[in-house]
Amino acid sequence: MNCIDATKTGDITKTGKVWSYDKIGRAISTVSITADGLLFIAEYAGKIHCLDAETGKVYWVHDAQAHIWGSTLVADGKVYVGTEDGTFFVFAASKEKKKISEANFGEPIYSSPIAANGVLYVETPTHLYAIMKLEK
Fold first, then answer.
1. pLDDT at position 120
2. Is 32 within 8 Å of 72 (Cβ atoms)?
3. Left if phi > 0, otherwise alpha if psi is -120 to 50, otherwise beta: which for 117?
4. SS3 sequence, 55-118?
5. How far apart are CA 68 and CA 113, in angstroms?
6. How far is CA 94 from the centre of its chain?
7. Residue among 45, 46, 43, 37 at smallest CA distance from 21
8. DSSP element (H, E) containing 3
9. pLDDT surpasses 80 at 107
């Protein structure tokens, strides 16, 4: 993974390259970046990486032990991602690895989670789950 400064040349072989991270395997997802500059990306082999978006410094890596097809989602100070074995992870969007929860949906999660209007949506091949906090 390379970070480039597109305002320079856009050509990483010249002066546009800012940093490079070679510890990530094949990824078929996009990155999520927090307002305070944390970058999260999941690789197909099942590792979730947290880096500093400005420098490329690695803060933590988590091995989900299953393929990850979708992208990470950052919302409400948390990082969400599902795996092919149906495990859905929630981490704190922080420099320290803090797993908040882990739940198994019983079937693969191939897509990226989505958040809208206070609802978290998670899709499996047969169901669309809408998860929200109920007010008392």
1. 97
2. yes
3. left
4. CCCEEEEEECCCCCCCCCEEECCEEEEECCCCEEEEEECCCCCCEEEEEECCCCCCCCCEEECC
5. 12
6. 12
7. 43
8. strand 2-4
9. yes
- Measured distance CA(64)–CA(99) in Å, rounded: 11
pLDDT, residue 124, reads 97
Can you read off the two tokens belonging to residue 71?
A: 């992208």
Least confident window among 16-30, 63-77, 82-96: 16-30
Q: What is the model's pLDDT at position 15? A: 55
User: d(Cα 2, Cα 88) in Å, to the nearest integer?
Assistant: 27
Q: Can you tell me the distance from the alpha carbon of 91 to that of 77, in angstroms, rounded to the nearest whole number?
A: 9
User: Which tens digits make up the pLDDT trace of 17-62?
Assistant: 788 999 999 999 899 999 999 999 999 999 999 999 999 999 999 9
Residue 113 main-chain phi, psi, to 5 deg: -70, 155
Mean pLDDT of the chain: 92
| Six token digits for residue 37 | 């500059």
- The identity of residue 18, as a single letter, is V
Dist. CA 39–CA 95, nearest whole Å = 10
User: What's the pTM?
Assistant: 0.90
